[in-house]
Design brief:
This protein has two domains: about 220 residues, 3-Layer(aba) Sandwich (Rossmann fold); about 140 residues, Rossmann fold, CATH 3.40.50. The strands form two sheets. The chain has a seven-stranded mixed beta sheet with strand order 7-6-8-9-10-12-13, sandwiched between helices. Strands 2-1-3-4-5-11 form a six-stranded parallel beta sheet, with helices on both faces. By secondary structure, it is of the alpha/beta class. The longest helix is centred in the last third of the chain and has 33 residues. It is elongated and about 90 Å long.
Length: about 425
């Protein structure tokens, strides 16, 4: 996808994978957590004034004392206002929980004590009708900012809040395409952390493990904005890798297995993209695919435990920590519009050797070396030396078997006599 402005530039995450990651030096990346606290800046200014006014009247000291009092008051007011940060989630999910845990850990690493700041989790329980309710509950607390997780909930929050409170989103694949922000740099009071998947790396993993593969099956929900965005990238990448995508759009999770069974005979592998419905159905997809002797690949870490052969994923815990850094800058006085959207740039390759063994797949050495998360132990093919040793043993067993059969045939006539 080409962009004219840097502010709209989407950059693939920097993944230690089986291919060299694209250059992302021009990406708009936010490191966060680097600014001094506003109270500390005021204190330094007061101390500088003290050094330049040595010997001045007590009136100068009075001014300094007033500045110090204002500093303490601002600090106390900030602590009181920032004591509760709502985190809005659409429902409980392992990936969402990783982001939440990362946010809490990030605040802890930044030095916030439980008495100074605490996060409040507000759960929509998987019902879109509940989103407005939890947004209203968050606004009633008059928070300094609101954290929203996932695309749909972030869209609803932005539309409802109308920039009256800074919003920091997390776990949003395509914030520009979803109209959550107009750009990665110019975005008003809404900023956050994007979990843009390394889709090209994921499809390249399929090509590395299955060099002869021609077709890859993909099931997705067309109404999901993140799924639409992911499919656009997947189609472009598949062309470059000479892979044909066998796509099927499904809106209801109960139809996934039936649609999957219909496409399995046409494909060499199955890909689970950035689609919430198929991610949640990963276990049944992996089981059905294994019965058809077709491997599954994806990007969500949990699919590995559910039977996928390989994933290339971002670290959602780290995404949560980066989200906390963005919040920290806002709490310290930096306007949200001055903080660029963070795009995930750290990730890992994961392999399920047990799933690969069941499908008798050979995993290339360079792919195994790139993996930082594995399930089981890779056994691979028997060394050539062992196979050569096994040939004489097999021949010997066959010869002995033939001798035994001949001896039985010779003894039978004698017994009859």
């Amino acid at each position: 996808m080409s962009n004219q402005n840097n502010e709209d530039l989407y950059c693939p995450p920097r993944i230690l994978s089986v291919t060299v990651a694209p250059d992302i030096t021009k990406c708009m990346q936010n490191t966060g957590g680097t600014e001094d606290r506003s109270t500390f800046r005021m204190y330094k200014k007061a101390m500088a004034a003290k050094e330049t006014r040595k010997g001045h009247s007590g009136k100068s000291w009075a001014i300094l004392v007033a500045i110090g009092a204002m500093t303490l008051l601002c600090g106390q007011t900030r602590a009181a206002v920032a004591s509760e940060i709502p985190i809005l989630i659409p429902q409980q999910h392992p990936v969402i929980q990783e982001i939440v845990d990362g946010i809490n850990k990030g605040f802890e690493e930044l030095g916030y004590k439980p008495g100074e700041l605490r996060t409040i989790l507000m759960d929509g329980q998987g019902v879109p009708a509940n989103f407005s309710t939890i947004i209203d509950a968050a606004l009633q607390k008059h928070p300094p900012l609101i954290i929203t997780i996932t695309t749909g909930l972030s869209q609803t929050t932005v539309a409802k809040v109308q920039e009256t409170v800074p919003i920091v989103f997390s776990g949003v694949t395509d914030p520009v395409g979803a109209k959550i922000v107009p750009g990665l740099v110019k975005h008003g009071k809404v900023t956050g952390a994007s979990d843009l998947w390394p889709i090209e790396e994921q499809l390249r993993l399929i090509r590395r493990v299955l060099p002869q593969a021609k077709a890859v099956g993909v099931i997705f929900r067309p109404s999901e904005p993140n799924s639409q965005f992911g499919m656009r990238i997947a189609r472009e990448t598949a062309k470059k890798l000479d892979l044909r995508l066998v796509e099927r759009g499904v809106e209801d999770a109960k139809d996934v297995v039936a649609v999957l069974d219909a496409i399995l005979p046409q494909v060499d592998a199955v890909y689970i993209g950035p689609d919430n419905m198929t991610i949640e159905s990963a276990k049944v997809i992996a089981e059905s695919s294994a019965q058809a002797r077709k491997p599954v690949f994806g990007g969500e870490p949990g699919t590995l435990e559910k039977g996928a052969v390989g994933v290339v994923s971002i670290k959602y815990f780290d995404l949560g920590r980066e989200t906390a850094k963005i919040c920290d800058r806002i709490l310290k006085g930096t306007p949200a519009e001055q903080i660029p959207v963070y795009v995930a740039d750290r990730g890992f390759v994961g392999l399920n050797f047990e799933a690969a063994a069941r499908l008798k797949l050979v995993i290339p050495a360079e792919v195994r070396e790139a993996a930082t998360k594995t399930i089981g132990v890779y056994k691979g093919e028997a060394p050539a030396s062992q196979m050569r040793k096994g040939v004489p043993l097999l021949l010997g067993a066959l010869v002995l078997g033939l001798i035994a059969v001949l001896l039985r045939r010779v003894r039978r006539p004698n017994a009859a006599a």
